[in-house]
Amino acid sequence: MKFLYQYSASDSFLHRLDPRSKLIFILCYLIVALIWPGYQLMIFTTLFAIFLLWFVAGISPKEYWQFLAYLAPIMIALILVQSLAGGPPYIEIPLGPFVISISEPGFFLGLGIGLRLATMGIAFMIFAMTTDPFDISLALHKTGVSFKISFLIGFMLRFLPLIQEELFTIADASKARAYKAMDSKNPVSILRAIIAAMPPLAAGALRRSQNIALAMELRGFSFPSEFGIKRTFLKEIQMRRADYLTIAASLSYAIFGLTLFFTTQQFDVMGYTTGLTVFLVFPAFALTILYVLYKKAAKREEQEKKKQLNAQTQEKN
User: Fold this and answer.
1) N or C, which end of the chain has less CB nearby within 10 Å?
2) Axis crossing angle, helix 65-85 with helix 104-130, rounded to the nearest 10
3) Secondary structure (H, E, C), 258-270
4) How sure is the predictor about 272, in pLDDT bands with cuts at 50, 70 and 90?
5) Which residues does residue 103 pair with via DSSP β-bridges, in sequence order?
6) Can you tell me whether residue 99 is helix, strand or coil?
7) Closest Cα partner for 128 from 249, 280, 266, 19?
């Protein structure tokens, strides 16, 4: 069973990228998505993030449908609150003897806020589900962060699925004792069940962390830092051509989007709509260029491997 924000191993383009280039891409993506007003761009960014996870990373929505299911009630609540509390113009909806006045600007404002939350969650899910936590620690250490701090960040991402697994174990144990409050449709009953599960969940998390800390000390985790020995790693990561292309495309996207945002604020609605249309086309164009360059680089690497393999076979003969 897949848990939220759990690494999903694969050999896709996003999985092969360096964690540093992926982090720069996500930050540039979110900066533009959060600063741009309106809901039109939010719809595009949300669908584009799902497209990256599904078609580029090869991760089906079946693996993160729980996140979307948790997010749907929050989005609906935001839309309802903003629709009822917003200003004119209003849309009147007759419901029998009553008439409900819904604010049109408030509705679209709530929709934009909800889609911003979805974009943020799916964007960080792209990073977490396509990046091994050990690679995150190694990338942070290579950028100059202390190994203990970088390891702590990677361990935190690895520990989240363990906490979810512990929570599901507690829920299964409760069901075996005929306590099915977590399966209830009543939100109050679900909240009570979650509060009741907090003490055993905290105890289980502490027990797991103590066991992991003891295992790390038995394997000499702090030995290199205490005795001044250079730490070695089983796996090494390095920036490749695809990583530099991703960073260049991400920074270009952010600069282009921010420049377009500040310039279109001085135009009328037609100018804003035209600028937004151009801005929506730009990431698709940049992604196409990046994909073509990546395919050429992959083809070149494959040809070099074939040449090396042929040279080795000739030497053996």
Assistant:
1) C
2) 160
3) HHHHHHHCCCCHH
4) very low
5) 90
6) strand
7) 19
